[in-house]
Amino acid sequence: MTRTLPYLLAAMALLFSAASQAGVREDQLAAYASAAKAANAGFAGFSAERGKTLHTQNFSGGKPDTPACTACHGKDPRGSGRTPTGKAIDAVAVSVTPTRYTDPAKVEKWFKRNCTEVLGRVCTPQEKGDWLTYMLGQ
Length: 138
What we know:
Blueprint: H1 4-39, H2 48-56, H3 70-73, E1 81-82, E2 88-89, H4 104-118, H5 125-136
Antiparallel strand pairs: 1-2
């Protein structure tokens, strides 16, 4: 019994850590949903399909070397990406990088930077929620 106690404690720590990360993500999505509803009374929820489209679509409003999210993050969210300067980027899919999207300040920082560079504007709360919903399912 004394040999299994450390393993049991480690397993419990991992379980509670994963649950708290999921809670932070759910809170972030709830905040985006509230903002999306305030901006559009017809808002009916987030869509992973719209998130996928946002991730793969080319835009003309941002920087020419980043016309889509896939320019840096790649077409497969489970794969690693690379910035235009060559710096490696961890996979954006939660299934590969489980600690992603657990710090709301970082999530907002990267949405602000990436949306401006790709779309040429700040993403709407619905776009953020759709994209995040897509990534949480990957």
